[in-house]
Design goal:
It comes from Undibacterium rivi. Helix content is 55%, strand content 13%. The protein is of the alpha/beta class. The protein has a single domain, classed as Diaminopimelate Epimerase, Chain A, domain 1 (Roll). Strands 3-2-1-4 form a 4-stranded mixed beta sheet, sandwiched between helices. A hairpin with a 4-residue loop joins strand 2 and strand 3. Helix 7 packs antiparallel against helix 8. The protein is globular and about 50 Å long. The model has no long low-confidence stretch (mean pLDDT 93).
């Protein structure tokens, strides 16, 4: 177990999450997702977690493993065209993971998702959390438009509100 990581997670609290993502930022992120989803048939969810707790923390669960778990828990896989995308931020580690369902992942691939994650993390290094998330949503949107474009999508299979864990 990484002692430095353990201390970061134990010292990160839920109220700090609200400091990084106040209500105004959450509304802007939700609006970015809503706007994005009018241009394609895909579904985007954003989830942010202050820190890992309990067994996941002491097992040294990676941000990737946690994101995969949440992808399932939030039922992002449960879309008609298998084109749901989770953008997950583990705040204590300042790590972003993108988990894409098989419909979109096979068309885009790991390298593209990784690039978006690293670009978002650069924003976070400068404490630009809202801007970083919105830039990530816009980048994911470009991939969705390329593969699932529509002139006006009125169907919304998943909630657009950010998930605070």
């Amino acid at each position: 177990m990484n002692l430095k990581r353990l201390i970061k997670h134990l010292s990160m609290s839920r109220w700090q999450l609200r400091r990084y993502f106040p209500e105004k930022s959450l509304q802007a992120i939700e609006l970015a997702i809503k706007s994005s989803e009018t241009r394609h048939q895909g579904e985007i969810r954003f989830a942010v977690e202050a820190s890992l707790e309990g067994a996941p923390l002491f097992r040294d669960q990676s941000s990737r493993e946690r994101a995969i778990h949440l992808f399932s828990e939030l039922r992002i896989w449960d879309t008609e065209h298998n084109n749901g995308v989770l953008i997950y931020l583990l705040l204590a580690d300042k790590r972003v993971e993108i988990i894409a369902d098989r419909g979109i992942h096979t068309k885009t691939g790991d390298a593209e998702w990784e690039k978006i994650c690293r670009d978002m993390e650069r924003y976070f290094q400068h404490a630009e959390y809202e801007a970083g998330v919105i830039a990530g949503i816009q980048a994911v949107t470009q991939h969705m438009i390329r593969h699932y474009a529509t002139e006006h999508n009125t169907r919304n299979e998943l909630p657009d509100q950010p998930v605070l864990l």
